[in-house]
Design brief:
Oligomer: single chain
CATH class of the largest domain: Mainly Alpha
Shape: globular
Largest sheet: 5 strands, antiparallel
Number of helices: 27
Strand content: 5-15%
CATH architecture of the largest domain: Orthogonal Bundle
Length: about 575
């Protein structure tokens, strides 16, 4: 299968209005010809990103981030360029052959993914047979209907002769490959299905590829584990996945939040009830990789872990890690039932939604946690509690939060606010969480030649007439970088018979030697009103500067030359250049 062509990428970009795509992530405000929004690529508190509908490019005037619709999605979602193309195509309702956009990892593991996809379909089909009646009854009693079964790929592993192992063998897949993927087990050299007599739930990676399964008993067996999960394999790394992540992403953008639960049945229950911005840890502790997945969503995180001591402890430790990574964290602690699944079945979805609406900040959760196992009517316990809160406040750079917390403690426990403020000074501020303030990057100032050369290249990106003007009146840059970019622009135009900055950005996405310079050129020229007359001014400027530089070079060469005849030739060349200057 051939990779996606530049023409196909350009066709997708031309149908994807950059204002609509960026607007699906961030609120945009129209100002004149362009649109403004807060830049998501730095700590921006006032709109500094401009989006040009006319040119189909964006630019942040603070941090300098620039690009087209694909580079925005690539940077915002933290995905590869081809993944960004796929996301944009999907948002525009454009059908593309996803095989052309697969990463090297997907291509390398093609057979493995084919086996996992077949296993899911095989398990799902088992539910529809006479052997699946009991399992279907169990699922229906749990409120899981056909739509949910289809959405989450729920199936059934049987213990009949038509096992997954036997079917895959008939399809010419090796037992060693099945064992490697965790679909079968071995006992005394005998192979058998890993998830026999269990309801199966596929596990996906962040891109929606099936990488493993979790399987649950459903007939009341007591002498076996409730769940059996895929062991870690070359495809499945538990700490690198969040259950339902690929389903939740679009809904996360709508709700501007992501709910994190422990078990995948909690995520399924919430999804059944219409709360689809949810992922599951399939455990209690967040890994670095999972935190990075949450950071990519650019929304607040709501932790709703199980209503037990382990869940509370995990909320404390996970929340701490998320806050350190700069995420906005809220907490829900349910009362009564053990987890969201049981809570919703017992109390209804509206009760759970009320918990979402009244979720507490992680700071408030932590302050309440400090009260645990303390009798605040006792002086020692109260002093310990207040000191813990003050130390927490001392580690915060939020002056308003500090002031409100001190005022609250002062009024609640009749303590002098001055004493509290003095006490804070005793805690080591060196351990405070570092808040990195955004510093606008300072670009190295370019000389007159480089500035003018950049402008000429930007004009060339805006149409064939500008390319013709360059070739007719200049045709050459003295530095290698601008020559390479000019040659690429000419080649692109000759091949496509059209050119614009947005499409050329896509074209250079894999050309590391010039990509960053092209982005700078587009960024600096985004607000320009272009014309042949203005371009001619830049061409004349560059031409004169190159002549001066050539004269300067020749004078140095003349100084070092000892051969009289060669000196005469150099002098003649200098005279000729000065005459034409």
């Amino acid at each position: 299968m051939a990779l996606i062509t530049n023409d196909e990428i350009n066709a997708i970009r031309s149908k994807a209005n950059i204002v609509d795509i960026i607007g699906s992530y961030l609120p945009l405000t129209q100002r004149g010809r362009n649109y403004l929004c807060v830049c998501p690529f730095h700590d921006d508190h006032s709109p500094s990103m401009s989006v040009s509908e006319e040119k189909q490019i964006y630019k942040c005037f603070a941090c300098g981030n620039t690009g087209n619709v694909f580079t925005f999605v690539q940077n915002y979602e933290d995905v590869s360029f081809l993944d960004a193309v796929s996301i944009v195509a999907e948002k525009c309702g454009i059908d593309i052959d996803k095989r052309k956009l697969k990463s090297n990892n997907i291509l390398i593991n093609k057979e493995e993914y084919e086996i996992m996809n077949f296993a899911e379909k095989f398990f799902q089909n088992n539910l529809k047979t006479e052997f699946g009646t009991t399992a279907m009854d169990y699922l229906n009693r749990r409120g899981i209907n056909e739509d949910i079964i289809k959405e989450f790929g729920i199936g059934l592993s049987l213990d009949t002769s038509d096992s997954l192992y036997n079917i895959l063998l008939k399809k010419k897949y090796s037992a060693s490959k099945m064992l490697e993927l965790g679909l079968i087990s071995q006992n005394a050299d005998k192979n058998f299905d890993m998830f026999t007599r269990r309801i199966t739930f596929p596990l996906w990676d962040k891109d929606g590829n099936i990488v493993g399964f979790s399987a649950r008993i459903y007939r009341g067996e007591k002498d076996t584990s409730k769940y059996v999960n895929s062991r870690e394999t070359k495809l499945f790394k538990k700490g690198e996945t969040l259950y339902n992540y690929h389903h939740a992403r679009d809904f996360v953008k709508q709700e501007k939040s992501i709910i994190v639960v422990e078990g995948f049945m909690d995520a399924i229950r919430l999804s059944i009830e219409g709360v689809k911005n949810v992922v599951a840890l399939q455990g209690t502790a967040l890994t670095k990789e999972q935190i990075n997945l949450l950071k990519k969503l650019h929304v607040k995180v709501i932790l709703c872990l199980d209503n037990d001591n382990a869940g509370e402890t995990a909320t404390l430790s996970n929340g701490e890690q998320l806050v350190k990574e700069g995420l906005e964290v809220y907490v829900i602690r349910l009362s009564g039932e053990k987890d969201p699944d049981e809570y919703i079945l017992a109390n209804g979805i509206e009760a759970f939604k009320n918990n979402i609406a009244s979720s507490m900040t992680y700071f408030d959760f932590k302050v309440n946690y400090f009260k645990k196992n303390k009798d605040l009517s006792k002086t020692n316990d109260l002093a310990l509690y207040v000191n813990q809160v003050l130390e927490e406040v001392a580690n915060s750079n939020d002056e308003i939060l500090t002031e409100l917390t001190l005022k609250k403690i002062s009024e609640e426990y009749d303590l002098s606010i001055d004493v509290l403020k003095e006490k804070i000074k005793g805690f080591k501020k060196v351990e405070a969480k570092e808040v990195k303030k955004f510093v606008k990057p300072v670009k190295e100032k370019k000389d007159a030649y480089l500035q003018s050369a950049d402008k000429i290249l930007f004009y060339m990106l805006n149409g064939g007439e500008f390319i013709d003007e360059y070739r007719k009146k200049l045709g050459f840059f003295e530095d290698a970088l601008h020559r390479e970019i000019a040659n690429e622009i000419i080649y692109y135009y000759q091949k496509n018979n059209t050119i614009n900055p947005a499409d050329f950005i896509s074209y250079v996405s894999d050309k590391d030697t010039i990509k960053n310079e092209v982005m700078d050129i587009v960024s600096d020229g985004m607000e320009d009103d272009i014309s042949i007359e203005v371009m001619d001014g830049y061409i004349n400027r560059v031409d004169k500067l190159m002549v001066k530089n050539e004269i300067k070079r020749l004078k140095i060469e003349l100084k070092n030359e000892t051969d009289a005849s060669k000196k005469i030739k150099i002098l003649d060349r200098i005279t000729e250049l000065k005459k034409n200057d």
